[in-house]
Amino acid sequence: MPEEREAKEGPTLAATALMIVMSLGLAAFSLIIIYYGIRAAGSRTETPGMDAWFQVLFGVTGLMLSLKMVYDVLRMKISPEEEEPTIVSRLQCVDCGHWKEREFREGEYVGLKTGEACPKCGGSMFVAAIYAKRPRKQARRPLF
Amino acid sequence: MLPSWLLEKGLLEGLTGAQAGDLGDSWLNWIIFMIMIAVLNIYGSKLQVQMWMNQIARALGQLQQLTREASDTFLQEASKFGGDGERVKKILQEAKGFFTISPVTLDPTGAIRRLENILDEAEDSLNRFVERAAPKADSVKRANLRDQLEGVIVLDLIFRIVRHFYLLGRKTQNWIYIAQVQMQLPEIMRIARAYWRSSTAFQKGVPVGDSIGPLIALRLIGDAPVEEVAKNVVAAEVELEDRRVIVVKAKGPGGEVGKPGEAIRRIVESRGGKVAKIVMIDAATKLEGEPTGEVAEGSGAAIGDPGPEKWKIEEVASQYSIPVHSIVIKQDLLEAITPMAQEIAEAVDKVIERVRRTIREGTKPGDVVIVAGIGNTVGVGNTLGRAEVMAVA
Question: Which of A37, A90, A110 sits opposite B380 (nearest CB)?
């Protein structure tokens, strides 16, 4: 259920398409502006004015803005989905203390005698803990 | 580069009336520029508010969906225990919007007692809703269903509050209403998701992060016999570090928090105040950057109740000059009400080691020490692999 919910929360297809079309349009417009700016700046017939460089500047800004828009849309779409943890029961032997993990079964609680035999000494086992196990991520160096 | 036909036909120049490099001199460009400035000046803030309103509208849709899903989970679960589908739906509708009114604090005398009375009545009312919705549920299932119902009520309340500000902002066109909700949306959604996820934990009866206190208490109790010392609170006497340790926890394995303050007061008074120390273990909200499962300790009563239970502990401890020491296990809100994370469960041994040290410090062999594991005991029994509760006080 949680995965279904997370999947539904992204932007709609229409909104994504609109954002991409807009950013492509902006990118195309920016390229044209840059082209004109560079052509004017490189003109041998007349001295290039400030307008030409402003055009290049506006073009580059527009291009960067369009790239940022595409990046934002992709990030929203390809955001890493949170992995649903597995609920495990940790069973421990009353006699030898040997423990093992297995998937949680509904109705179990911590302290319950499960009736399972210890694989090591044959003693009875009880639920010592129940917890959510997530795949361990590679630890990132903390900023502070 | 640009297609040659575009340049040859001079379409771009035609469009703007400009030559290469003189786009800035075109009168059309200046008009467009001035219009843009005027539009942004006049309508900029309106556009911003509209964008915020769209974000809130999307969040409202999600909140409605989360509330609906949590309600459905409750309906399915209650229906398994004798509740008729339509009847349960009606009861749930009645329960939504349930509120408690804080007591008057203008006259602070007896405010805590009045608050306790209100909280007791609130709990009884919710229990009655659950009894009507799932008449065949036993006490454990009833407690879990009540916690599930509380989650649905909180989600519904969040939805109603956000909707209120959204509609009020739209009606009055006052951007303050909109801005304050928009700025808090990430936190609001995080809290809502936490409550939504908690419904699964209570449905299955799995320990949540807040159950770490009762879990540690259970480990200390081991297979010692337990006794109900206050409403939904059990206690067992064990020997630890040559001291007589009375371990207190909520009565499991249903989702109860009990009245640990009342239990501690009764234990202390029954011994004429001859208690050397009170050690409390509870989950605590971590700050961002702190690792989940980090253990910290300090003085004072670690208990997150609205007031009455903490007050009882402080009162009895100060009356008999008993030091109160607390050990907390750090976690965030999401972790506190969703299935217990492995990091939190792994803190048990570290905490027990600290409890042993705390018991040794400042007490003598033979002294009585109270150790209270505070929190919701969902999925945590009362003894390790032994018989059930013995007597009711």
Answer: A110
pLDDT in tens, B20-34: 445 555 677 677 778
* Torsion angle in degrees (nearest 10) through CA of A42, A45, A51, A57: 0
Domain boundaries defined on chain B: 47-204, 209-373
**Domain B209-373 is found in CATH 3.30.930.10:** no
Q: Whole-angstrom Cα distance, residue B80 to residue A10?
A: 34
- Closest A-chain CA to B144: A107
pLDDT for res B71: 92
CB A26 within 8 A of CB A73: no
**How many other C-beta atoms are found inside a 10 Å radius of the C-beta of residue B26?**
17
Query: Distance from B261 to chain A by nearest Cα, in Å?
Result: 24
Q: Is B204 on the interface with A (CB under 8 A)?
A: yes
Q: What is the pLDDT of residues B356-388, one digit of tens each?
A: 999 998 899 999 999 999 999 999 999 886 544
What's the pTM?
Answer: 0.80
Q: B246: Cβ–Cβ under 8 A, 6 or more apart, which residues?
A: B235, B236, B237, B267, B368, B369, B370, B371
